[in-house]
Amino acid sequence: MSTAAQILVALVAAFHVYFMVLEMFLWERGPGRSLSGFDAEMARATAPLAANQGLYNGFLAAGLVWGLIADDPTGHQARVFFLCCVVVAGVYGAATANRRILFAQALPGALALAVVLAAG
To answer: What is the pLDDT of residue 1?
Structure first.
């Protein structure tokens, strides 16, 4: 795998760890509330939903890390699968929740996926 592909996959994984931490642990605090734009009451009411969403982001990050450390062909297949999941989740999130998700999640995932596929 090319160095560029490794770096991009690692960055996408890091973004998802960041999203996981925001959604699972910081949702009701400043960083989480600035992300959501919710007031304290709405953040408190939606915290269980955000934590569930954060858990899924953690799974995406774990799958991408697995893809980085596993030998090929398994590693390549894991990278492709989990990057496809990232793109689909980003497109769905942009369509149903917030258009910014397209640029924060789907676009980096699609770019990493293109480089991973090009690297073979």
So the answer is: 67
